Amino acid sequence: MFLLLLALAMLSLLALPLWHKIDGLTNQELTLTAFGFDAKGLAVPAPGTVWIIGLLAAASAAVAVFEIFQFRNRTKQLLLGSVNLLLITATLGAAFYFSNKGEQLLNLKLEGQFLTAFYLPTLALLLNLLANRFIRRDEQLVRSADRLR
What stretches pass through the bilayer (predicted)? Predict the structure, then answer.
């Protein structure tokens, strides 16, 4: 259940904007999505490698879905959970990095706003930790039942 919610959270990050900044004086807007910047009224070109956020989020969702179907091999699930931890952390770091890059493109005195999708990797981290905890608990239960045989 936790892994399915994790995959949904990371997939919804692909569709929702992460960060937004508006300069009221010049009517310039800058929105960060998982695949790039959406600039309105901005003459300065936006950084181009933003798609890495979307790639990391999609990879994390794919690993979570694959991890669901590895229910017969709990040690492999735990290994995939560790890989997913790294992917989610990298997604969060890339989103933060590119939002800071976006801050520099518009008026520096104004602050941009982090939107809902920015916080989804944090939710995914929590769900991943819970999934790993319950997978580890299942593995311990199976090992203790094997000792009783």
Answer: 48-66, 78-98, 118-135
State residue 43's pLDDT score. 61
Q: Does pLDDT of 48 surpass 90?
A: no
- CA neighbor of 38 nearest in space, from 123, 115, 121, 93: 115
Total structural domains in the chain? 1
Q: Tokens in use for 94?
A: 């890339």
Q: In whole angstroms, what is the distance from residue 42 CA to residue 59 CA?
A: 31
Cβ atoms within 10 Å, residue 24: 8
- Of 94, 85, 95, residue with least CA distance to 3: 85
Residues in the chain: 149
Q: Residue 1 belongs to what H/E stretch?
A: none
Question: Which tops the pLDDT comparison, 19 or 45?
Answer: 19
Q: How far is it, in rounded angstroms, from Cα 14 to Cα 7?
A: 11
Residue 131 lies in domain: 2-148
**Please, what is the Cα angle at 75 between 84 and 140, to 5 degrees?**
120
Q: Which residues contact 53 (CB under 8 A, 6 or more apart)?
A: 13, 18, 34, 35, 91, 94, 95, 98
